[in-house]
Specification:
heterodimer, A: 114 residues, mainly beta, 6-stranded mixed beta sheet, B: mainly beta, globular
């Protein structure tokens, strides 16, 4: 059974600081996704990481994937209040028949304070 | 604009009642998914469908049923056998290429009366 673990689950940080969210998973996969969820809202896709060593950046967020370590990171640079949200990583256990649905971590609830 | 439409936004279920959540997409995606989200938790897969007239159980299918008669539509029925249905339900779809993320609808919040 595929397990996806995120840490930390809660993170309160000050504006301007840097921090990293970690996502570990328990099976071989080279497809990992990061999503953002605002309170009471749906999920917004942030990054799609499809190979070992993949790195994607968008604004103050950067995501990377190490398939050998089964680890992805989401790095926040010089945080601003607008980045406050819950961030989920999800792994796609791809089979020959097609994508079977994602397995999600429990999410990291991020609060950025002025 | 292309997207996924879920309805209703809020739904209340009485004891012993079946309720159906609607999910429609106009993205021409083959694969569709239903997830359940409990407060403070990640999403868990209920059912998924990769093509019309075919679907598979996810991790928590008990007490739920689905159909996929049209490519655009993937309704979820929460049956009376689901004893703890209160949750946020999210429908998603994905195109045929594996480098695409799943796109999510706005969700339906189901509560017990």
């Amino acid at each position: 059974e595929l397990k996806v673990e995120q840490n930390p689950l809660f993170l309160s940080m000050q504006e301007g600081k840097n921090y990293t969210i970690y996502c570990n998973y328990s099976t071989t996969s080279d497809r990992l996704y990061w999503y953002r969820q605002d309170p009471g809202k749906s999920l917004e896709s942030l990054f799609v990481l499809l190979s070992n060593g993949a790195v994607k950046q968008e604004g103050r967020l950067m995501a990377s994937l190490d398939t050998k370590a089964r680890l992805s990171t989401l790095h926040i640079t010089a945080a601003v209040h607008d980045l406050s949200a819950t961030y989920f990583c999800a792994v796609d256990e791809y089979s020959g028949g097609g994508a079977d649905g994602l397995t999600f971590g429990k999410g990291t609830h991020l609060i950025i304070q002025p | 604009d292309g997207g996924i439409t879920q309805s209703p936004k809020y739904l209340f279920r009485k004891e012993g009642q079946n309720v159906t959540l609607s999910c429609e997409q106009n993205l021409n995606h083959d694969a569709m998914y239903w997830y359940r989200q409990d407060p403070g938790q990640g999403l868990r897969l209920i059912y998924y469908s990769q093509i019309v007239n075919d679907f598979q159980k996810g991790d928590i299918a008990e007490g739920y049923s689905v159909s996929r008669e049209k490519k655009e539509s993937f309704p979820l029925t929460v049956t009376s056998a689901q004893k703890n249905p209160t949750a946020f339900y999210l429908c998603a779809s994905r195109g045929q290429f594996s480098n695409q993320p799943q796109h999510f609808g706005d969700g339906t919040r189901l509560s017990i009366l």
